[in-house]
Amino acid sequence: MAPAHKDGRSAALYPPLRRRMIENGDWDRICARLARELNESGWIDRFKDRSKEMARAAEGNGGLSVEALLAELMPQAEADIPMGVRQEIIGVIRKLLERQIDFT
Amino acid sequence: MDSENGKCPHLAAVLADPTESTALLNRYKTAVRWNAHRSQEVVYPAKRRKIAPPECGLCGIALSRPYACLHCPFAGCWHDKHVKLHLQDTGHDFCTDVKTGSVFCVECDDFIYDSTLSRIHSLVVLAAEERVTNFHVAKRGREPFTPWVPNSQEVAALQRSVPFPCQGRRGLLNLGQTCFMNVILQSFIANPLLRNYYLSDKHNSKMCKIKDCTSCEMDKLYSEVHSENTAAYGPIDLLAKTWRVSSELSGYAQQDAHEFFITALNQIHSTSRGSTSLQCICIIHSTFAGLLQSDVKCERCGKVADKTDPMLDISLELKGETGNEQSLTLASCLRRFTHPEKLGPNEYSCEKCGKASHASKRLSIRKLPPVLSFQFKRFEHNSADKSAARKIEAPVRFPASLNMAPYTTLVMHKQEQLKEGGSAAMSLVPDRALGPEALYEYDLFAVVCHEGGIDNGHYTCFARSQDEWYRYDDDKVTHSTLSACLNSQAYMCFYVKKHIDYKPYVTPSYVVTREQEAVKEKEREREREAARQKEVDDAILGVL
C-alpha cells in the first residue's frame, strides 16, 4: 500500500501537517501510543524475534544486509498490525486532523 | 561486516586518531543528548511552546526520527535513503539514529556495535533522565551517576585475581518429582540481583555459623553453576533443608512451584544479613519486596481510606474472565487487578460518615520492586472436594518489555484527578513529577511453565542470559528463542527493572557497620591498654 501522502491533493497538505504534528508533540505521542498497543498485542516481540532469527540463520552464508532484512520483513510487519489497533490509531489521527483542516 | 571479530574497521580507524575520535564522539553525544531532551519536552508539552523540528537536508521534510551524520550537521530521512545518499555523496562514513543511538556505517553497509559508543549512549541518556527525576520524600535531586574508577589497591587486587565468566548455565537433576524446585532455582540463577549478591561473596557459606542456613545453600548453588563443571547438578542439601524447615513441602509428591518460591524466599530472608521483621533490607526484600496499596472509597461520603501492605510478588486471577479467554494478556490481568471492586453492603463501615455503606476497593502498586514476579493463578483448589481441583489452560500473552506506570498508585491517582478535571492524560506518565518513564520499565528474564494436569504435570522454564534465551528441563539445557519462550504457557514470569533506583547520597549499611565496628575496636583496645597499665601500677604499688 503506497503511502497516502505521496499522491495528489494530499501531497501538498502532508508536509505542513506533518510539521505541525511534530512541533506540537502530537506525532510522538501517537507513535508512543501505537508502540504500546503493538507491544501488548505481541507484534514488537514477534518481529524482534523474526529479524534476530533471520539474521542468525543467514550467518552461515555471508550474513544478511539491513536492506534485505527490511525488504523481507516490512511488508509482513505492515500486514500484521492488528485491525483493531490500526483502526484505533487512524481514528485518533483523523480526530486530530479534523480539528485542524478546513475540508471545504 | 568486513572484519573477522565482527568489529567495524572504519570506526576503529577513526577511534585510533585522537582528533577524529573526539570530533566523532562529540557529535554522537550531541545527537543523543538532543534526543533525550527533546523526548522529555514532547511528553509534557507546555501550551505555548513549539519545538522546531530538524529538516531533512535533502527533501526538507520535518523529521520525526532524524538520522544524524556524525561528520557534519546533516540530518536526514532513513526510509527514503536520503541519509545514505548523503553519506555516499560526501564520503562521510557514519550516521546515527538519534532515537536509539544505533550507528550505521555506509562502508560496511550495516549497523555496527561498539562498546565505547554504547557506553556513551547509556551515560548521556542517564544524565538527562537524572535531571528530570524528582524525589517526593527527600526534596533533593537524584545523585548523578559516576562510573567506578578503581583506586590503586583495587587495581592491584584486580591484577592478582583470575577472571571467569559470570554467565553460568547448568542443568539441575530431578531428585524425584523436584522439577517444581528446579525451575524456581533456575529463575534465581538468572536473577541478576541475586546472582551479583552471591557472586560478590556477600554470604560466604564457608564462614557462616547459622544452622540449616538456606542462604548458604544459595551461595553453594551459584558457585556450582559458575564452576567449570557443566554436568547437571543435584541440589540435594537444599532440598533436604527445605524439607526440614517446611514440612508441607516434604515428600516425593509433586509440589507447587509458586509455593516453593515463597517458602524459599522466606527461608533465605531469615538466614541472610540485614534480616528484620519490619522494613527488612536483606537481599530478598531488597530484590523482591514492593508495596501494595488498597484504597477503599465510601460511596456515600466519598472518603478514601488507604492502607499499604508489603508484597513479594503479584498473583493474578485468570478464572471468570469475561469475554474471550483467548485474549488474556498480562496487561489485561493487571488492569483487572487494579480495577475498582465493589464491596458488599455490610463489608465496610466508613470512619467519616460512620455508617455501613457501599464502598469500592481499588488496588495499586505503591512501590515497585527491582524484580517483579507474577503468578497466573492456574490452579483452582477446592478445599472441600480435592478431586474438584482444576487447571486453567488458557494461554496468557506477556511481553519481553513491560511498563508498569498505569498500575502504580501515583500515576493512577493523577489520572483520576485529570479525568475529574475534564482533561485526559496524553502520556503514559501523566505528570512530569512522576517521570521519567524509564523508572517504570522492566525486562523479562525468566518464565516458569507447566505442562499437563494438576497432579501429573511437569515444570520447565525459560531463562535469559544477556540476549539469548535458553530452555531448562531439569538436567536438559537447550538454546532457544524469544518466540519459543513467549509462546509457552506461562505459570510465573519474572521481570527486572531496566534501571535500578538508589536513595541519593546514602552510605551503604555494611560500610556504616564496618566503620562503627572499627570505632568500637579502637575503644576496646584503649580499655585493654588502660587495664594493662592499671595492672602494672598495682604491681608497682604492691612492691612498695
Question: How helical, in percent, are the residues of chain A?
Answer: over 70%
Q: Kindly report the average pLDDT value of chain A.
A: 88
Provide the number of structural domains of chain A: 1
Radius of gyration of chain B: 29 Å
Largest sheet: number of strands, sense, barrel closure of chain A? none
CATH architecture of the largest domain in chain B: Alpha-Beta Complex
Helices of chain B, by number, come to: 15
Q: Could you say what the CATH topology of the largest domain in chain B is called?
A: Cathepsin B, Chain A
Poorly predicted segments of chain A: none
Number of strands of chain A: 0
Q: Can you tell me the CATH class of chain A?
A: Mainly Alpha
> What is the assigned CATH homologous superfamily of chain A?
ENY2/SUS1
CATH topology of chain A: Serum Albumin, Chain A, Domain 1
Uncertain segments of chain B are: none
Please indicate the count of domains of chain B: 3
Largest interface: A-B, 29 and 33 residues
The gist of it:
Chain A is an all-alpha fold and 104 residues long.
Topology, pairings included?
The complex is a heterodimer of chains A (104) and B (544).
Chain A: H1 8-24, H2 26-40, H3 43-58, H4 66-79, H5 83-98
Helix pairs in contact in A: 2-5
Chain B: H1 9-16, H2 18-43, E1 67-69, E2 75-76, H3 82-90, E3 94-97, E4 102-105, E5 110-112, H4 115-131, H5 152-160, H6 179-189, H7 192-199, H8 214-225, H9 236-245, H10 257-270, H11 283-288, E6 290-298, E7 304-311, E8 314-317, H12 330-337, E9 341-343, E10 359-367, E11 371-377, E12 379-380, E13 390-391, E14 401-403, H13 409-420, E15 441-451, E16 458-465, E17 468-473, E18 476-480, H14 482-486, E19 490-497, H15 509-543
Parallel strand pairs in B: 8-11
Antiparallel strand pairs in B: 1-2, 1-3, 3-4, 4-5, 6-7, 6-10, 9-10, 11-19, 12-13, 14-15, 15-16, 15-19, 16-17, 17-18
GO molecular function (chain A): transcription coactivator activity
Organism (chain A): Lentinus brumalis
GO biological process, one term (chain A): mRNA export from nucleus
